[in-house]
Amino acid sequence: MAAVQMDPELAKRLFFEGATVVILNMPKGTEFGIDYNSWEVGPKFRGVKMIPPGIHFLHYSSVDKANPKEVGPRMGFFLSLHQRGLTVLRWSTLREEVDLSPAPESEVEAMRANLQELDQFLGPYPYATLKKWISLTNFISEATVEKLQPENRQICAFSDVLPVLSMKHTKDRVGQNLPRCGIECKSYQEGLARLPEMKPRAGTEIRFSELPTQMFPEGATPAEITKHSMDLSYALETVLNKQFPSSPQDVLGFRCVAQGGVQSVTQSCLTATSTSRAQVILLPRLPKVLGLLCLDRTFYIIGSANDITYILTGELQFAFVCFLLGNVYEAFEHWKRLLNLLCRSEAAMMKHHTLYINLISILYHQLGEIPADFFVDIVSQDNFLTSTLQVFFSSACSIAVDATLRKKAEKFQAHLTKKFRWDFAAEPEDCAPVVVELPEGIEMG
Q1: Which residues span the domain enclosing 355?
Q2: What does the pLDDT average to over 124-138?
Q3: What is the pTM assigned to this prediction?
Q4: Average pLDDT, rounded, for the chain
Q5: How far is C-alpha 58 from the chain's CA centre?
């Protein structure tokens, strides 16, 4: 890890105040990274020091000892780190991955006592990219990570899959309409069709919210089916109602970046997890938000659990990070589906305008990390993002929506037009006649 020029006094303070992650026995040559940075591990590497408190993503790729140029798939995991916290992990030689099992408390305390001796083997956190990392993750809370990460906590670029059926018996192949073993394959397409149905290994799948495939309620009339197929607000509300509790007594904490100049009233309280004294800053202007908790110099928004602004946007950011830094293609597909659902829900923009104001900020930072032509379909040459945002802008820039949302949408549209030369002026495809397939048993009157 390259040395970072820093004032000695500041470096000393960050060493003692920041978090430390120790990873023992990681092989030389391993590609290792934290957040937006990555390096090739040297023989003395033992971890990272001076890490700011909050959510972080650590990722790595193992290398073949016989052929160091052969790099394994990207793997990673999220950690929620605290001020002066020490996390001790170790490399599993057998599995060629970081073992996330917690180290014995005695080992952690012994290492804490010798932390200064360990300093020479720890790389400093690169603060030059911290602002970018925060802009990509400021809605991801510890609760978001716990809800979405796989049960084994490992984010892997390649899915660990198993066949649905063992295929040991002829009846298993017949059940999936597969030919008997030994029958010659006559074409590439036939070969693909013969592949058995696969499923992720239990505990390895990212637990994204289930998005609906039916956009209208049961028993809907043809007119209602058409309406809900064009405006996906009903489908979006079903996701919100299904995934998130509605009791205002349930309280969650969401990490955020402290904003200067906040007009607030402060009071003191005891935290739910300890008897330490913390400060709560009341924010009366924010709907469904009870206050801002300042604990260990980290700020948390305290809001009711049905405050979707901080939950749904957190999932959008989580999916993007898993794709951008974890190389998980399934996360990119979920990001696209979730974004499509949000952008095509016109009625929801009137009801959840704060959600959409934050969505614009999130997209502003995310789109700065991806080439403009990335979203263009190789076959059709259609750009998923421009067509989706075109529908969004046609709704968000209308006179009926919240004035703040409308102004922000107009500025964002102008920014994208200038930066990427995307044309949003043409009529969106959604304005063309839509062919809607009706469920069985429903006929036009």
Answers
A1: 222-243+291-429
A2: 94
A3: 0.78
A4: 79
A5: 14
Are 231 and 339 members of one domain? yes
Please choose, from the candidates 56, 203, 206, 76, the residue with its C-alpha nearest in 3D space to the C-alpha of residue 140.
56
107/104 Cα distance (integer angstroms): 5
In terms of Cα–Cα distance, which of 147, 142, 154 is closest to 204?
A: 154
Residues 89 and 190 in one domain: no
Least confident interval from 20-24, 352-356, 360-364? 352-356
Neighbours of 349 (CB within 10 A): 26
Domain count across the chain:
3
Do residues 398 and 352 lie in contact, with contact meaning Cβ atoms separated by under 8 Å?
no
- Cα distance between residue 47 and residue 8, in whole Å: 20
Give the C-alpha distances (Å, rounded to integers) separating 64 from 30, 41, 45, 67.
9, 14, 18, 5
- Whether 437 is covered by a domain: the verdict is no
In a domain, 100, yes or no: yes
